[in-house]
Automatic annotation (TrEMBL):
The lineage of its organism: Bacteria, Bacillati, Actinomycetota, Actinomycetes, Kitasatosporales. It is a multi-pass membrane protein. This is Na+:solute symporter. It comes from the Bacteria. GO terms for molecular function: symporter activity.
Amino acid sequence: MNSLDWAVLIGYFGVMVAIGVWSHKRVDDVSDFFTAGGKMPWWLSGISHHMSGYSAVMFTGYAGIAYTYGVTSFVTWSFPIALGIAIGSRLFAPRINRLRSRLHVASPLEYLKNRYNLPTQQALAWSGMLLKIVDVGAKWAAIATLLSVFTGVSLNQGILITGVITAVYCTIGGLWADALTELGQFVIQLLAGVAMFIAVVAKLGPHGGFFGVWDEPELAGHGKPLVGQYGAVFLLAFLFIKLFEYNGGMLNQAQRYMATASPREAARSARLSAVLWLVWPVILFFPMWMSPLLVESQKPDGSDSYALMTEQLLPHGLLGLVIVGFFSHTMAMCSSDANAIAAVFTRDVAPALSAKARAWNSHKGLIAARVTTVVFLGLSMAVATQVNSPTFKDIITVVIKWVAGLMGPIAIPMMLGLLRTFRRSGPTAALTSWSLGLLAFWLVNYPINWSVEGGVPLEYQVSIPLAVSLVLYIVIGYVKPEDTPERDAIIERINTDDDGPGTTGAARIPAQADAADGALPQS
């Protein structure tokens, strides 16, 4: 990097902070901070949903998969995400929007207290928060790894720089700041991705051009959609995982659906995000597929290949823009996660722990939300410094194995609890599927994995916990039905097709005391 690249990077950080300060004027209460008051346009929600779904891990961990295996990085990652979101645009997005517009909640987990009971809500809230700390820690480590390649700063210094900048704008401006910075980040990403795509295509002439390049020996097998450990079982498992995760199971995407004015607009935002996931990653991945022809990775997993290729192909200025693109991915996801976890703690956890929290007014609730955001970011940054330790092994292990494997047991009670089909599944089904799904994750990844020669294949490490939770949730619901008139009433309000008058626009969040005592708010 030279002074021009640094100017681009510093200018980007300045713009992100400025957006946060501007967004501060639009945040008057916790509803604005967590769900944008239900006033976010569907197209902004869709772009924000897309941008908050991936980070610099794509340019490290998934760049390594693309370097080693080729197009399977798209087939087994962004394609199932696009398909999952498209399904969710009809199945989940409108129902999640009604959580705000009809039940008047600010956290995606807030409705679980009435849908199941308080212990179920707390179990999912605490496990979801802990998983997110690890997940976001991996994202900080990924961007710090890239920053070290370009600038030479240490891993911990890179984590501190990106974490502090993100904390400033997302703490000040809430979800509005997240969405608006993600819009700007999308534009930057578009310019940077196209620049890198053009630079790589221009280099392919001696190798037979765009189509003939696939015959090169360095790309042997790169055109196969499913290879190695990323086979058909992994693809199907990943599709189910991403169906739940990217439609709200990891909380931050659920907020994008809640932030739109109506269920119909939530569905439109999901469809836009699905299209972006289907089309845009092809542009981003193509240079990674070609990277074995252009650079020689210095790491066994190929995770540094994209960064090395960027340094080799792009002139200064554009190099800075691509580095900014790396930051845009990570900061978009991490800031949205921080806002989601702040919502869960402020609306779900704190009221269960403290009578004072149940009595918070709008001003105190907003202060608590901002403090929680800072604390969450600090904890995730601390975890990031340990991401390459023996416990986590490496970045891609955290993202694929830990997040994909643990997300199912947490997300299934939350997501399936929205649907009429599963109205019989109550607290027993939810808690059993959650606890035994987590146990299955531990067994298959550690005791069983250590005892089997060669280890348990990756597709089973991530799919078995989800399968255990899914089967138990459904079976226990039929064996021990716990549907009640009160629970059925909540499900009907979430599933009603006729939205009726007064359900669009900003929804006033009920007093914290009302939310904590188990009473269902009335619209």
